[in-house]
Amino acid sequence: MTRTLGRAALAVAIVGGLGRGPAVRSAPQQTPPSQRPPIFRGESVLVTVDAYPQRDGRIVEGLTAADFQVLEDGKPQTVENVEFVRVEPSLSESLRRDPNSLNEMNALVADPHIRVFVALLDQLHVSIAGAHASRRPLIDALNRLLGPNDVFAVMTQNTDPRMLTFGRRLLSIEEQLASYWDWGEKNRIGLDVTDPMEQQLKDCFEFKPIDKRPPWIFIDNGQGGLLYELLIDRRREDRTLTALERLVDRLAGMREARTVALLITEGWRLFPEDRQLADESRVYGATLPLVGSASGTLVVGDRGGVTGQGFAKICNDELIRLASINDARRLQDLITRANRANVSFYPVNPQGLQTGDTPISVTNQPSSLEDSTRLRNRLDGLRTLADNTDGIAIVNTNDLGAGMKRIVDDVSAYYLLGYYSTNPAHDGRFRRIDVKMKPPNVNVRARRGYFAPNDKPVPGTIVAPPARPAPPKGFEDALGELSRLRPGADLFIRGALVGDTLQVAVEIASARSTVMPWSNGADVRVVAAGADGLALPPATAHMDANTRGVLVSIPMTGTHTAVRVVTRVSAGRESLEDTAEIRRAADSLVGAPVLYRGRPAATSPLRPVADLDYWRTERVHVEWALTGEIDQRSARLLGRTGQPLAVPVSVTERETDGRRVMAADLNLAPLSPGQYVIELTVGRGATTELRFVAFRVLQ
Length: 699
Hints:
Distance between the termini: 24 Å
Structural class: alpha+beta
Shape: globular
Strand content: 25-35%
Number of helices: 12
Radius of gyration: 28 Å
Largest sheet: 5 strands, mixed
């Protein structure tokens, strides 16, 4: 996990995994002499249950199967295997090894003996003071939590949970939290540049669309304020709860193990449905569908764009949607989904003891009763989420270190219970699990249920096709590069050793490149050293205004097999720095790939790529340096499973900087969001080689 956070990263949730759903058991770490591994029964469902029996807040050790009583849908089950697992933390980064491929990562996440942590920083609901206060306790907690086998991921409200990358190394996260300690956006002046809808809400609702354009004020439980600011608050809460819902769904699909989510947040107001707020849409008046023609065909729809009726319709649709959301009910639904997915939340409020919810800098203060009600809602929501998912809420304390230690102690030891369900039906239904303790004065938290296997497809669903052949060798390694991308990074580096030249693509994150001072251009300095420690001559370059990437070429003396690169990008008084190791590709017909992005038009300029995320409005251009003559060349597009797609990839030979290259070009407009791989086939005589380049398509 080497993802740069910065102010564009929004949330960190630590997910510690133990047991969920029927699981394929790996070899137990410790099995008491009185226990024996269960014998597999063909039609039975083997269920693993993670359990945390505690007395006076401490794990009770030395328990056997006779000490547990497990009920499934109220019916007693026979516990056939008990395994006690204690994880000792490892403070040495040298003992932590990141997975090398996507398959390895998924296998680690699925293993119930390996704990999994996902860090989600709720950037939209943490103040700068809270962000600064949480930095050291968070890093200390991660160091105490993570054993050499544990894995974790980082996500924000802007991160698609389907793209979560799990790793083991903490060093880069610690460096980034130290560099970007002010990541909190709550109460900060200005809009979130990663969400263009905030600017649109401001444009729509800052002033009433009538003569004299007075400020558009709305009374929010006795507090008067600008309407657009209230809508942005509602939208930010909606984005955060949506991110939590998608995270729960993603983890349920990845892992047959309990998941503990550590959520750094100052809580939410939990806005109710507000019909009075929805009535504000009447100010713009009715926005009737417009009638027009396109390509000789009559069409009905709002074709006003962002002006006139189109402007009003977009504004009013979002206002009505936000006014109709009931976030308190959504929180209850989230708890239900989390329990079914066996996800436990550990919210941490970094603000400490608070006397009020509204900063004193706000001009229109709510009444003291309303202000205390808002603060209570925030804290009660966090307690409710934790208490009902078997987590711990760290709130109302100025000693975050002690609070984090409670979490460390709570997830560092547990039992894995194994039983064969007495219900042989493979009906796909949810089955409730209750775990009780026979020893006195012992409280237990355990998984609350699982979904049974389903042999019969649900009516209306598509029957899965027969198993597809395995993807070609090298395909998963290419996808593995996507899994190692750093979510929320501000700077990306990607390089290739081509003959006697080191080529380094340097690219600023899309969100950062559009704001000052980066939008005015930036200076780039690259320092590289070979494996022998000898430094290469430093190289400099300049990113033009309104661009985000540049390709730096450094001549080399001798043939280096690996080069370490340190890159620094500066604009005004701000700077970004990152390091990378670039290795030479094995001798072959073509060299390492260099990626570019451009607009769909073939004449549009190409920009070098280090961040492998593309928009559908772009095209992918890849170049491989040729090492000699070839007589075979073709390329095709593969989907996430390795199957070819009916989207053409053009292949040409061209000359770049005096070097012959093989180029592949692909327009992304026909593709839906997801992961893809370009497969290049080249040959000379009887020799044929495959090369793979992975990339990700965004909306």
